[in-house]
Structure of FadR family transcriptional regulator:
Amino acid sequence: MEIGNLHIDIEKVSHKTMADEVETKLLEYLKRKSFKPGDALPKEMELTAALGVSRNVLREALSRLRMLGLIETKKRRGMVLSSPDILGSMERVMDPLIIDDTTLQDIFELRLTLEMGLADILFLRKTKKDIEELEKIALQEKATRTKQNFRIKHEVDFHGKIYQMTGNRTLQRFQNMLLPIFGHLVNEEKVPIGGKVSHLDLVNLLKTGTREQFRQGMREHLEHHFQKLKK
Amino acid sequence: MEIGNLHIDIEKVSHKTMADEVETKLLEYLKRKSFKPGDALPKEMELTAALGVSRNVLREALSRLRMLGLIETKKRRGMVLSSPDILGSMERVMDPLIIDDTTLQDIFELRLTLEMGLADILFLRKTKKDIEELEKIALQEKATRTKQNFRIKHEVDFHGKIYQMTGNRTLQRFQNMLLPIFGHLVNEEKVPIGGKVSHLDLVNLLKTGTREQFRQGMREHLEHHFQKLKK
DNA sequence: AATTTTAATATGTAGGACATAAGTATTTAA
DNA sequence: TTAAATACTTATGTCCTACATATTAAAATT
């Protein structure tokens, strides 16, 4: 008899720790039972009994769910399910020095994609007041443009404001955590920012242009970033 | 003397547990020391000593970092830093029944934004082979379009393929976790999918059209979703 | 020198003990 | 009788000790 492809026939030994398994089981349990935020969960001792693990292991798993914002616990009252913070745990690990290069590149592209897709929501939600504030940022920038140190700050301020204008808090937070990554990947460049289309140009497009014109402007504004993308 | 605004003067009592603090301290420590993936970390006992907490508390914090993929541990060898999975923890909590409505809406918009921003990368990376596969999906859809049950599957297949064509694994995974949310928000609708621009139209735009034409087509394809966005 | 055996060590798991906060029941005082 | 003070109960938070287990390092054997 032939031996054949071993790692198809033999299941890889699971290096899973018990806390890992308990975590999975708890997540399954919460979803299967379709608990809603506010619902009370079983007590620790009941869970240890049901799962057949020590309180220690259980608490390591619960600690994870607590980090995800999935559960909240109070003394004596026990645990309740709560609405998780979907970005919270992502924020913790957003460090360009820790994340691998492929993912960094992916994130870079992700941000460009978002930036190009913003026009639709932006034109739906833009207000006169917001545009004025954006213009102020762009003008401030022009005044102090000589100083290299300020350039990054202005970049951040301007694009940050744009995301804020979408009224989408999640989008805003998301872009905020992408910033350090973006900064890390472009900080060595000495490319004069903006290219053909400056921030001020974008403001004007936002004021008087169409959605498509704005998008086209944004594309040209980001052109030198797109240039760097690999096929 | 005036009392004034209390909750500015008096710091809110921190309900933070020790595991929370240890987690923060560890994250700070890892970033400050600028450890790189592969570097060995101090042993549990050294950390308990340095932090002045029990091994139990420390392990609850470590358990979280382990979930984030930030650290890996092996018996006897200790712990090493590793490249975290930035989406992993997000995937765990992506459940439309648990996430609050505002965030759900945010996510919905986030996906639309991505979809509108895809054209640039798509036109950079599209290959003949991919387009053929996409066309196949679109044609298959046309053949079985009568059955309501298949509609969602086709939606998923088609748009999933598009994301895959970007060659961006993170983007792909991201869209994949957004799917259930999207599905949850639109499942009650009986709007005939596609509107003016069908999947097959999009394929043709991808084949012979320009980047901007494709984007315009995508916009019209998604038009009835955009219609639902609130100002 | 190569191989086997033994020892050492760091993490994984278990279980007991007590602290603490927050409800609940009971007693006390007006 | 009711309000306030007190004692009790309970579930989580923290600490500690002990031992299992895997894996590397050292020692012993051939």
In short: The radius of gyration of chain B is 24 Å. Chain B touches chain A through 65 residues (CB under 8 Å).
